[in-house]
Amino acid sequence: MTSPSPHSNSPAPERFPVVVVGAGPAGLTVGNILRAAGVDCLVLEAESREFIERRPRAGVIEEWAVRGLERRGLAGGLTVRAQRHTECEFRFDGRAHRFAYGELTGRHHWIYPQPLLVTDLVHEYADVRGGDIRFGVRDVRLHDVDSGRPSVSYTDPDSGERRLVRADFVAGCDGARGASRQALPARARISRHDYGIGWLALLAEAPPSADRVLFGMHPDGFAGHMARSPEMTRYYLQCPPGDDPGNWPDGRVWEELQRRLGAADRPPLTQGRLVEKRVLDMHNYVVEPMVFGRLFLAGDAAHLVAPIAAKGMNLALNDAFLLGDGLVAQLTKGDRSGLDGYSEACLRRVWDYQEFSAWLSEVYHGTSCGDPYRAGTTLARLRRLFTSPAAAAAFAEQYLGTAGAY
Ligand code: RFL
Question: Which of 300, 319, 350 for a ligand 1 pocket mutation test, highest count of atoms within 8 Å of Cβ?
């Protein structure tokens, strides 16, 4: 619920047209769009600048999202340094099955580590466009978001004082565990799906073993390989939900990865030091609507997709483009249409990606679920991608996020 306005001896409240809570891809993109249009805003971030510029997460970005960043002058670093991927590969039955979606569609993915994108976006917002961003803020609370006079309060990390900032609009971009989700009114509908599956998410100081994403469907569980940079590779291993990363010493990790991703016609994986090892309990959720009075949710604060289909950051960017443009139209021209249609426009792509994530989860995990019926239907789905041009085209469209309309 929204917290009541704070009564304290804090300094006089400040005022901004927009307060953005959270400096992830969503919040920083909204902030940059506002600054480019000359709209004042304040970004509040719980962590330090160094921390958010290093936090490893996503890496696969869709072409339309990069075009959206480019149009807003935010893709300078990305288009110079990112790699392009035009293929992925499914490994099952001990063999590699290459899926050349680039040949099929003429489209590609970009591979650019999330910390690099965040670094570019912070630099552009704070150092180039002169945006106000406050790092390390504590105990952020949203107040009166359902009224016409919302505000956000926080504790200043240097002085320890409570600060109050009044705003016309609050952009809730603080991810899955932020203050915005705490401020949702009772009428918010939250749909959640638990896969009952864990993934051990790994980051290896090792060059990618292929110039494409690898999906390993093995009777012992799923394994994945995704390039991040010429020096770093992300790997995933299916494990029981809630598993302890301590159960996965490096030797066991590499043995399982080599076995689950092994294929007769491919060399073994290039191994390296494992610098991240954490268990993710795979789940998704969607908050509807994405707007409550003057609070506009964007990114993981509004919806989560487990990293199954590499979609979360792409959705965060889509929200941010629509929200940034909608706020600019409202605040500079009095045109409310973008903000009025915001929730509905975002949710169409959100639900489509949720469905694809659930579909792909069955492909990844069906062969090892212990049910021979599901294992059989999963293999049929996989083979269909290589025998039916219509099925291949449908998969490519969803994997790339290129449907004509959402
Ligand atoms: P973020 O990135 O979580 O940013 C939220 C920011 O808010 C801050 N914050 C607060 N600030 C102020 N007050 C509070 N109370 C706050 N609470 C939190 C946080 O410190 C943070 O800086 O959300 P945003 O902007 O919505 O972006 C979402 C993406 O980060 C997320 O969807 C992706 O990382 C998901 N994801 C992937 N998405 C893709 O599109 N492609 C991928 O290849 C991909 N790979 C992944 C992923 C997520 C992963 N994990 C960690 C779950 C791989 C992994 C392993």
Answer: 300
